[in-house]
Every structure is written in structure tokens, then in C-alpha cells.
């Protein structure tokens, strides 16, 4: 099975045997997995941020490691180090938990900036340097980080360079009453329900093949211009102090391809870009004084930007003709 739509449908269905709601988050994880990206999940305690990551990892059958971030975690605790073995009289490399397919950095903002920066090379280069030796990380490789937005004491806000490494950010909200009711019923009838209850639905090789399929999705020049117009507006609007970087443009491009493939299309449409805009931009924008004083959120600013940029028309039909002519 290498069809991205079939893969994500299978993962979503299996995850749904435990998880209630948050289908958009599961889709976002799949988008990043299919494009080599990373995801930041933010939400109050108890909304299943870590469980979502664990369920996703188990259904994909990939090697999964969870790192509980605290102020006393050191960079070597993540990347690994050389340990002296007295019985053989030499140093041996002890690899850290970063050497996994899916790495969950739980409560990443509790780690110090020095420890947070240990993830930078891994997220960008998919390599780790330990005492001068550069080592390749497994493929596929993905970081899923979680953070709690309400606690300030004992936390360290992610620097802009770190946030920019995350392709997408999702806010995991409290569930509606109907979903929470179903949650109670489901766990009342099956108290042992959890990540161990799901089964693998896809292999790592199939995911890598699906990545190749996603990379071939057609993107019209009008879509390129639409992406650039949105990103340019984040830089030019008076409500932001700093807009999105070129990495955000690439995030739009790659995530848009994956979303198109997941929804059964061979080409990207403006709705792909528009629907992804909040997840691509909310963690990248730095609001200016005007927005801060007016109490506007980053999501509201993104919505204003989308309203100010006119999406292209007739992209679908033109892309279909282009594909047919080939």
C-alpha cells in the first residue's frame, strides 16, 4: 500500500478506535510524516497530546521514543554520548532517544534553551553530531513536540529559530461535550483501552514510497504565487513585527502536496493552502504592538491575512488539462 490517501485512511481509522475527535491533528501528523516535517502540539494538560503521538506511531509501526523534557535534561540525554567500558578498555557510543523514527519531546518548553537547541540539527539535517562524529538518523524521522500554554513558571519559551523548524502547529482543544460523553462510555466499557490496543496498518517502506508519490503532486504556478502572496502579507502587514520566513513558503508547498494526495487529488488547489495557513503560520508570526494592544491572537491575524489575499481561480481545471496533455 503506497497510496497516500489509503494509508492515511487506514491510520485514521485505527487511531479512531481509541482517540475521539482531533481528526485534523491526525491528518496533520500524516502530512508532516509524508513530507519530512515536524509538528508542534499545544494544549492544556489532559487533552491527549502525547496519546495522539503514541497512537500515530503505533499504527505506522515506526520506532517511537518519548523524551520527558525537564530543566535538568541535558543535550547528551537526547543525542547520546560516549561511555567508557572498563571491561574492554575503550569508549562506546551510547545512542540517545533521538535515534528513533518518531521522537516525542513532551513538554518541550520545560527544557532549557541549550537542551532545546539539541533538536535543531536533527530536525533540519536529520543528523546528530556527537563529540565531532556526525551520525545519520533513521528514515523516516519526525519530531512531535508538545507544550502547555498556561504554565509560565519553570518554562522556557521556544526561540524563533526552534519554532520555525516545525512545519505545522496544532492547538489541541478541550473536547465538545458529545465527544467527552463518548469518551466516558468507551473507557467505561473498556478501561484498558489505550495505545497498546491499536495495530500497525502500514510499514516504514510503504511510508517512504508514499513520500515519493506526494513529491510528484502537481503545483500550478498560480499556487506558487498564492503561497508567496500570503507569506509576503505576513511580512508587510502592520500587525506583525516579524513575518514568516522562506521556510514557511516551503512548508506551504510540501504540506499542500501531501494534503492534496491525502484527499485523492494529483494537484494542489487553493483550499489546500488556505486550510493549512493557520497551522503553518501561527507559531511563526511575531505580533506587533498594534495587535498586542488590540488583543488579537495570531490565529485572528492569519484569518485577516487570508481575507486580504485573493486566491487564484480555475487552478483545478488548468492543472487537470496540464496533466492530461502530458
UniProtKB/TrEMBL annotation:
<dbReference type="InterPro" id="IPR041628">
    <property type="entry name" value="ChlI/MoxR_AAA_lid"/>
</dbReference>
<dbReference type="GO" id="GO:0016887">
    <property type="term" value="F:ATP hydrolysis activity"/>
</dbReference>
<feature type="domain" description="AAA+ ATPase">
    <location>
        <begin position="35"/>
        <end position="176"/>
    </location>
</feature>
<dbReference type="InterPro" id="IPR011703">
    <property type="entry name" value="ATPase_AAA-3"/>
</dbReference>
<dbReference type="InterPro" id="IPR003593">
    <property type="entry name" value="AAA+_ATPase"/>
</dbReference>
<dbReference type="InterPro" id="IPR027417">
    <property type="entry name" value="P-loop_NTPase"/>
</dbReference>
<dbReference type="Pfam" id="PF07726">
    <property type="entry name" value="AAA_3"/>
</dbReference>
<dbReference type="InterPro" id="IPR050764">
    <property type="entry name" value="CbbQ/NirQ/NorQ/GpvN"/>
</dbReference>
<dbReference type="GO" id="GO:0005524">
    <property type="term" value="F:ATP binding"/>
</dbReference>
<dbReference type="Pfam" id="PF17863">
    <property type="entry name" value="AAA_lid_2"/>
</dbReference>
<protein>
    <submittedName>
        <fullName>MoxR-like ATPase</fullName>
    </submittedName>
</protein>
Amino acid at each position: 500500500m503506497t497510496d497516500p490517501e489509503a494509508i492515511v485512511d487506514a491510520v485514521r481509522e485505527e487511531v479512531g478506535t481509541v482517540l475521539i475527535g482531533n481528526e485534523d491533528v491526525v491528518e496533520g501528523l500524516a502530512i508532516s510524516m509524508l513530507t519530512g516535517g515536524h509538528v508542534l502540539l499545544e494544549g492544556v494538560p489532559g487533552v491527549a497530546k502525547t496519546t495522539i503521538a503514541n497512537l500515530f506511531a503505533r499504527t505506522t509501526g515506526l520506532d517511537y521514543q518519548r523524551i520527558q523534557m525537564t530543566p535538568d535534561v541535558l543535550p547528551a540525554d537526547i543525542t547520546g554520548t560516549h561511555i567508557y567500558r572498563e571491561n574492554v578498555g575503550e569508549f562506546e557510543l551510547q545512542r540517545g532517544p533521538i535515534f528513533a523514527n518518531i521522537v516525542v519531546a513532551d513538554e518541550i518548553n520545560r527544557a532549557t534553551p541549550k537542551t532545546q537547541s539539541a533538536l535543531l540539527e536533527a530536525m533540519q539535517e536529520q543528523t546528530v553530531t556527537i563529540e565531532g562524529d556526525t551520525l545519520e538518523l533513521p528514515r523516516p524521522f519526525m519530531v512531535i513536540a508538545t507544550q502547555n500554554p498556561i504554565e509560565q513558571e519553570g518554562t522556557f519559551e521556544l526561540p524563533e529559530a526552534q519554532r520555525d523548524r516545525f512545519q505545522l502547529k496544532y492547538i489541541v482543544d478541550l473536547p465538545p461535550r458529545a465527544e467527552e460523553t463518548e469518551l466516558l462510555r468507551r473507557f467505561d466499557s473498556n478501561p484498558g483501552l489505550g495505545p497498546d490496543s491499536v495495530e500497525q496498518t502500514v510499514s516504514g517502506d510503504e511510508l517512504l514510497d508514499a513520500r515519493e508519490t506526494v513529491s510528484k503532486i502537481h503545483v500550478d504556478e498560480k499556487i506558487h504565487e498564492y503561497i508567496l502572496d500570503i507569506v509576503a502579507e505576513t511580512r508587510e502587514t502592520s500587525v506583525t513585527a516579524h513575518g514568516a520566513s522562506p521556510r514557511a513558503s516551503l512548508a506551504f508547498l510540501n504540506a499542500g502536496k501531501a494534503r492534496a494526495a491525502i484527499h485523492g487529488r494529483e494537484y494542489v488547489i487553493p483550499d489546500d493552502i488556505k486550510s493549512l495557513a493557520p497551522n503553518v503560520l501561527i507559531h511563526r508570526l511575531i505580533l506587533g504592538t498594534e495587535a498586542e494592544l488590540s488583543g488579537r491572537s495570531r490565529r485572528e491575524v492569519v484569518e485577516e491575512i487570508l481575507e486580504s489575499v485573493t486566491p487564484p481561480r480555475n487552478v483545478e481545471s488548468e492543472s487537470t488539462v496540464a496533466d492530461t496533455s502530458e
